[in-house]
Amino acid sequence: MESTEKIIAKQLLDIKAVMLNVEKPFTWASGWKSPIYCDNRKILSYPKARTLVYKSLARIIEQNYSHADVIAGVATGAIAWGALVAEVLGKPFVYIRPKPKDHGTGARIEGELPPKANVVVVEDLISTGQSSLSAAECLSNAGANVLGMVAIFSYNFNKARRSFEYSNLELRTLTNYESLIKEAVECKYIKDTDLETLEEWRYRPDTWRQ
Asked: Is the pTM of this model over 0.85?
């Protein structure tokens, strides 16, 4: 039986939610040059892939955080995923803004967060992990008990792993960079000769081709 990591990786490649191009790198919002670009919002347009993803996220939470009271999504990419997961699990849902809104209540957490609630955070993508960890910290500061975080995909950067370890926050993902690259080779999305470049980028993403 194929693993969830492999199945999800294949889905992301098939619908081009993840694109790989060593010859013509993408430019991220951070300014980094990258041979890979991940846009998990695209999954929402494909019912089969969408259902697979949100049910798989819900299953991770059921198996590992069965005492969760609330599901939280990180704005904006994980709002839809968090809401879908919360619906499957029959749990309340909130989402966390990157920063407090500049009008109305000035809230950063949107929705009703009960005092001392056990919360699982849903993310779509983990790169450096800083925005994800900021969201978790926001919930903790509001009095929530953050049990862990689940995400669709992680680049598995060393910086992100260290940040999550330092924050003592457990992260579980459906798939990751290593699984995706392995699947890309098997399905002929990339050539074997591209592997060295792809590995070089992952270990030095901030200076690659600068």
From this structure: yes
Q: For the chain, where are the E strands, in sequence order? A: 18-20, 26-27, 33-34, 36-38, 70-74, 93-96, 109-110, 118-126, 145-154, 171-176
Q: Taking Cα atoms as reference points, which of 153, 134, 159 lies closest to residue 74?
A: 134
- Say how many CA atoms lie within 13 Å of 136 toward its Cβ: 22
Whether the Cβ atoms of residue 154 and residue 177 lie closer than 8 Å to each other: yes
The pLDDT tens digits for 63-105 are 999 999 999 999 999 999 999 999 999 999 999 999 987 777 7
Cis peptide before 27 (omega within 30 of 0): no
Of the candidates 100, 121, 118, 115, the one whose C-alpha atom is nearest the C-alpha of residue 164 is: 121
- DSSP symbol at 147: E
Does the CA dihedral 150-91-167-136 come out positive or negative?
A: positive
- Please report the domains of the chain, with CATH numbers, ordered by start residue: 4-203 (3.40.50.2020)
Closest by alpha carbon to 82, among 128, 122, 132?
Answer: 122
Per-residue pLDDT tens over the stretch 139-174: 999 999 999 999 999 999 988 999 999 999 999 999
Adjacency order of strands within the sheet including 93-96: 109-110, 93-96, 70-74, 118-126, 145-154, 171-176
Q: What angle do CA 182, 184, 185 make, to 5 degrees?
A: 70
